Amino acid sequence: MLSFLLKRATMAVVVMVNVSIICFVLSNVAYDPAIGIAGAQATDEDLALIRQTYGLDRPLLVRYGEYIGNIAQGDFGVSYLTKRPVLDMIVERLPVTALLAILSMALALAIALPLGSAAALWPDTIIDRLAQLLAVAGQAIPNFWAGLLLIVLFGVQLRWLPISGSESVAHFVLPSITLGTFAMPPLIRLIRAGMIEVLASDYIRTAKAMGIRPFQITFKYALKNAVLPVVSLSAVQLGFMLGGSIVVESIFALNGVGYLAWQSMSRSDMPVIQAIVLLISLIYIVLTLLADLLNAYMDPRLRSARK
Amino acid sequence: MMEIRKFSRILGLCAALGASTAMAVPAYAGPEDQSITLGMGEDFPTLDGYINTARDGVVITMHIYDMLIYRNPKTFEYEPLLATSWERIDDRTIEFKLREGVTFHDGSPLTAEDVAFTYNYWADPANGARSQGSVSWIERAEVVDDYTVRVIAKGAAPAALEFVAGSLPIYPSDYFQSVGPEEFGQKPIGAGPYKVESFGDGLVKLVAYEGYYEGGAKRTPSIKTINWRIIPDTATRIAEVISGGVDWVWNIPSDQVEQLQAVPTLDVALASTLRIAMVALDAAGRTGADNPLTDVRVRQAVNHAIDRETIVANLVGGDGEILNAPCHPVQFGCDQSAAVIYEYNPEKAKELLAEAGYADGFSLKLGSYRDRSRAEAVQSYLAAIGINAELEMLQASASFSSWREGKVGAWYGDWGSFSLADSSASLGTMFDGSSNDGARDETVIQLIKEAGSVMDPEERKAKYAEAIRIITEKAYWVPMHTIVMGYAYTNALDFEPTLDELPRFYDASWK
Predict the structure, then answer these.
(1) Distant-in-sequence contacts of A28-34, Cβ < 8 A, 24+ apart
(2) What CATH number should be reported for the domain whose range is A86-305?
(3) Do B333 and B453 belong together in one domain?
(4) Predicted local distance difference test score (pLDDT) of residue B506
(5) pTM of the prediction?
(6) CA pair distance B125, B181, nearest whole angstrom
(7) What pLDDT is attached to residue B20?
C-alpha cells in the first residue's frame, strides 16, 4: 500500500511540474502580458514601464526558474493587479466555490442515484425514459443557457429566488441546480449501466433464490457494487467543480475561484492564472487518489491486486 | 395518471420551498432609506484611483475622492472643487488656492501638503500609476502655504487641467504613508462625497460622508447609501434590473435596450459618450510594405465603400452620430469642418480600386472587438467592392495589441480619450507616432506635437484643424461614429446620463 502511495505521489508531482511548464509558457507566449496589465488604452511608455517593473523583459527560462523556485517555498507570487499574495486571494474565495461544488454534487447524486437505479430496475418504462431524457438534456443544454432560463423563470417571472450574489444560502439554489444538472448526466448513465450489469450477475440471482427481499437485494447487494465506478467519477467531477466554474460563477455573480480565474484571464494577471491551474490540477490529482483508495476500501479485490 | 398526480405534488412542494426561500432574499430597500443598488460589470482589485483606472473604477473614484477641480459634464467648463481658484503663473506652473475647512473621511483636514504629496508620489513612475499619461507631465508640486499649492509641469502642458480635473484624486498624505499603498487600496480614505464602508465579495458599500463640504461643484448627495454590486454577466444584470434586484445598470447592448423599453418599471437610455469608433487603416505598411492600404486611393475607396449612415441608424442606435473627423466633436480642437468627407459611393470606390491596380480586389485582416454585428456590416461593405476581409473578433485588449503590433490591416476599434474633452487625448494619442498610429505621417506627428505644447488656444485649434485635414485627405482612418452607452434604471430614480460616461450618483435622487 505504501509503495502504491509513493508511486502515486511521485506521479502527481511530475504531472504538476508539466502543468506548470505548459501553463507558464502558454500564458506568456499567447499575448503580451504588459498590455493585459496596463489595459487597452495604455500608451507605449506605460507598456515599457510595466515590462520593466514586472521583469517581463527578461528571458522566459529565467522567469520560469524563479517562479518554480518560489513555489517550492510556498510562494505563489503576488497578483499583478491587487499586489496581494495570490494564495490569499484564492483561499478567501474557496468557501464560495466549495459550497457551490458540494451542493451541486449532492444535488446531482441525490437525483442520479435513485433515478439511475430505478431506470435499471425497470428498463424501458416511463421512469427509464425520463432518466434518459434528463441525461441527454442535462448534457446537451449549455450551462449558461440553463442558468439564464432558471434566472428568467425563478428570478424574473416567479421572483422566488435571488438572481445573483452570494449573501445567503438562497443565492446558491439556482447556481447549484445549473451546475448540478451539468454533472448529473454521466452519473445517471453510469449508475444505470452498472446496476443493469450487477442485477444480471450470479450472486444477485442466488440472493433472489434465497428469498431475500428485493429492496434489500437492490440497495444492500447490488447498489454497493454498482456504485464503485460512480465514486471515481464523482471524485473527478468534484475536482473540476472545486476549481470553480467560470460560467456559472460569472452568470450568478458568485465571487469564487472560477470567477477569479476569468477575471485574471481577461486582465492577464498571470500569477493568479498559473496558481489556479496548479490548484485545479492538485485537487484533481488528490481526489483521484482518494477515490482509488476509497474504491480499494470498498472492494477487497482491488486491494489485493495492488499488493 | 398516478405519475401526473405525483408530479403535481412535487411541483407544489417546489413552489412552497421557493416561497419560503424568497423570505430569505435580502431586500435592498431604495427610496425608503435613500439607498440605491447598482449592477456594475467590472470588478475592482483595489479602490486606489491611480491603479483602478478601468471605466467603472474611474466612476467609483469620483465618488470616494475629490480632485482639485471639476469639469462640468454639460458645459465642459472647469469649476471649483477642492481648489477654489487656480491661475497659470507661467507656461509650466499652475497655482491652486485650496478650500479651507475641508476634511477627509477620517476627519483630518485637507492642506496643501496632502495635494503636493499625492502629486509628487504618483508623478514618480516607480510608484506605478496605471495611466502614466495622466501623471507623466508633472515635474513636481510645491507647497506655498497651508492652502496654496503650485504644480509645475515638465514642459508646456495645455491639457494639464483636464488631468487635474479627471484623473488626479487627492489622498490624505499621513494616512496613505502610514498604511502603505496596498492597504490604502483596500481601506481608502478620500475627501469625496461618499466614504467606503465595506469592500469585498463582489460588493462595495458606500455611505454619504456627513462632513462633506458645501459649495463645491459636486452637490451633497441625496442618496445616502450606494450598494455597488459587481455582476459580470450582462444578461444577469438585465434580469436583476427587471426583477428589481438592482436599481441601475449600464453597458446594456443597443438591441437589449430597445427590449427593456417595454418594461413598465424601467427607464432606458442609449446616451452619447466621448468614445469614438473608427476603422483604422494600415497606411504605414506595418502588415507588409507591399500592402494595398499603403496606396491612398485604396484607403479612399474603403472610405467610400462603407455606408456609415445605415450602420449608425440600424446598429448603433440611440444618440449615436456619424463622425467626420478622427476625434470627438465636443473635444477642444476637433474641427469637423476641417475634414474631407467621403460620401457612400461603392461605384466610385470600385473605380478608385481599379485605378490603384486592384480591380479584382484583395484580401486583408479586419480586427474588432466590441460589436460583432457592426464589424460584420463593415466586412460585407468591403466585400461589395471586392475586398475580402477576414474578421478577427477578440477581447478588447487582445484586439488592441493585434492592431498595435501591426497584425491586422484594418481595425474597427474605438477610443474613449480617457473622458478628456481635448483633442490631445484623441488625435494626440492616435496620430502621434506611437503604436496606436497606423499612419505614421511625419507632418501630422509634428503638428500634433506642436498642438500639444503651445498654450495659445487659437494656435492649437489651427494646428489640430490642419492635422484633421491631412488625416482625412489621406484617408488614414474611416472615422465611423460615436459609441452609445446603454443604461436601464428604475423609473422612480431621477438620473441623467452624461457625455463623459461617468454616472454621478451624488447628483441622482429618488423621485
Answers:
(1) A28/A60, A28/A63, A28/A270, A29/A60, A31/A268, A31/B398, A31/B401, A32/B401, A32/B405, A33/A80, A33/A268, A33/A270
(2) 1.10.3720.10
(3) yes
(4) 95
(5) 0.80
(6) 14
(7) 38
B398 touches chain A (CB under 8 A): yes
Task: State the ipTM, two decimals.
Answer: 0.76
Residue B24 touches chain A, beta carbons under 8 Å: yes
Q: Which residue of B has its CA nearest to A47?
A: B132
**CA–CA separation, B427 and B421 (whole Å):** 12
Q: Which of residues 239-258 of B touch A (CB under 8 A)?
A: 239-240, 242-243, 245
Segment B430-456 shows an average pLDDT of: 91
Which DSSP string do the residues of B471-485 spell out, in sequence order? HHHTT-EEEEEEEEE
Q: Closest-CA residue in chain A for B399?
A: A40
Same domain, B116 and B255: no
CA separation for the pair B79, A140 (Å, rounded): 58
For residue B10, the domain's CATH number is 3.40.190.10
- Answer yes or no: is B182 within a domain: no
Is residue B463 very low, low, confident or very high in pLDDT (cuts 50, 70, 90)?
Answer: very high
| Structural domain for B392, as ranges | 273-484
Contact list, A40 vs chain B (CB under 8 Å): 396-397, 400
Output the domain CATH number for residue B404: 3.10.105.10
> Do B87 and B148 fall within a single domain?
yes
| B243/A163 touch (CB, cutoff 8 Å), yes or no | yes
Residue B129 within any structural domain of the chain: yes
Overall number of domains in chain B:
3
CB contact under 8 A, A49 and B132: yes
Q: Which of A76-80, A300-304, B181-185, B192-196 has the lowest mean pLDDT?
A: A300-304
For the stretch B334-382, pLDDT in tens is: 999 999 999 999 999 999 999 999 999 999 999 999 889 999 999 999 9
Which pLDDT band, with edges at 50, 70 and 90, does A153 fall under?
Answer: very high
Q: Last residue of a domain, which of B176, B203, B221?
A: B176
Residues 191-220 of B with CB under 8 A from A: 201-203
| DSSP label of B149 | E
Are A253 and B236 a contacting pair at CB < 8 A? yes
Domain definitions of chain A by residue range:
13-72, 86-305
